[in-house]
Amino acid sequence: xxxxxxxxxxxxxxxxxxxxxxxxxxxxxxxxxxxxxxxxxxxxxxxxxxxxxxxxxxxxxxxxxxxxxxxxxxxxxxxxxxxxxxxxxxxxxxxxxxxxxxxxxxxxxxxxxxxxxxxxxxxxxxxxxxxxxxxxxxxxxxxxxxxxxxxxxx
Length: 154
Fold this sequence. Notes:
The chain is α+β, with helices and mostly antiparallel strands. The protein has one domain: CheC-like (Chemotaxis protein chec, 3-Layer(aba) Sandwich). Helices cover 32% and strands 29% of the residues. It is built from 3 helices and 7 strands. It has helices at residues 10-25, 63-74, 84-105; strands at residues 30-32, 43-50, 55-61, 110-111, 115-117, 129-139, 142-151. Strands 1, 2, 3, 4, 5, 6 and 7 form a 7-stranded antiparallel sheet that branches. Helix 1 packs antiparallel against helix 3 (84-105) and helix 2 (63-74) crosses helix 3 (84-105). Mean pLDDT is 87; it is low at 1-6.
């Protein structure tokens, strides 16, 4: 999903995601056309950006994939269930993606500490925003989705 006034190009996001996943987990990512399945049971890690551009970068993954990512990131066997380590890794992935993207959005952007939402049912709503981009990525450890959310101009 793209808007004409969006300040980031799909290629920028794909490059950042590929770099973070390769560097931190040794995983090759490919764009994936499967639709975003929603939040039932998924983990969502978010980092908020403020400054000239305001919004958030979110990483979404099913629990099995989040555990696989955590194992690869930490260099250990994949955890069997969601733990603080899994949440921390998801938050760090969102942090790295947001940190690398902030340079392409506008000068002087600041990032928040990551937040992670998970559980069998949750609804994540960042008030006054719109999703300007959402894409799926596939790895040998499973899929994930990245959302860029922008604060609506008044």
